[in-house]
Amino acid sequence: MVDSLVPQKILTWEEVKQFDGEQGRPMYLVIDNNVYDFTDFADLHPAGPEPLKKHAGTDASAAMRAARMPSAVMDVYIHRFKVGAVDVIGGNCMAETQYRLADVQARNGKLGAPLWVVHKDSVYDVTSYVDQHPGGDDAIRAEAGTDATSAFQDVGHSDDAKTILAKYKIGEIIEEEKKYDANGKKKKKVVAAKDEGTTGRSCLNTVTCGLLG
Predict the structure, then answer these.
(1) What are phi and psi of 84, to 5 degrees?
(2) 52, 53, 56, 60 alpha-carbon torsion, rounded to 10°
(3) pTM here?
(4) Are 119 and 165 in contact (CB under 8 A)?
(5) If one looks up domain 9-86 in CATH, what number appears?
(6) Cβ(30)–Cβ(104) under 8 Å?
(7) Is 79 within 8 Å of 2 (Cβ atoms)?
(8) Contact of 173 with 163, CB cutoff 8 Å
(9) CB neighbour list of residue 203: distance below 8 Å, 6 or more residues apart
């Protein structure tokens, strides 16, 4: 992956909004909490500058996914325009970006792709942290692109480790694919009981649901 030669910055959403491409101002777009400067690229965009201008100074993550942009384009080509990230730690992030599990699976750290993992329905981009991991990079690469909750819990990570992990959070899994509730407890699947008809069995057999872990 080609790293941007521009010094990386942490920007608030208020700062990003100012770079709207109007009246000679730079044109910044946010994709997955990363900030990109498309000022010089706008006129070279295959579909013209309008699609970029439409989202200048805003979060364009949903628009990029709707356009079904190939991951290779996102992860290699567009990366060269990255100038920083939005401040998600300081509470300045607007709506949290949501991803499908399939989005995470595509970021498995192979062939130059970023390395994402999931922990309790939160998505983390740990690409830049892999080589710093105290337990070696193999432990993280083994969980690349997957839900690493069990692996993370089994190791018994310290509070310091959890604090470090939080710095790399980029979003959440979409609601319909989440496995944990708001309290961090694993959700239980509700399965409707079979219709036993009028066999004379207890009414509990016909109207109750089974809870499966």
Answers:
(1) 165, -155
(2) -40
(3) 0.49
(4) yes
(5) 3.10.120.10
(6) no
(7) yes
(8) no
(9) none
**Residue in the structure block whose two tokens are 């337990």:** 135
Tokens of 209: 């649901």
- CB-CB contact of 45 with 51 (8 Å): yes
- Residue 20 tokens, joined: 């709207």
- The two structure tokens encoding residue 203: 């009414």
Superfamily holding 98-176: Cytochrome b5-like heme/steroid binding domain (3.10.120.10)
- State yes or no: pLDDT of 198 exceeds 50: no
Contact present, 113 and 145 (Cβ < 8 Å): no
Write the DSSP symbol of residue 147.
B
pLDDT digits (tens, 9 = 90+) for 13-37: 888 888 999 999 999 999 888 899 9
| CATH 3.10.120.10 domain residues, the chain | 9-86, 98-176
Question: Which residue type is seen at 135?
Answer: G
Whether 173 and 98 have beta carbons less than 8 Å apart is answered as: yes
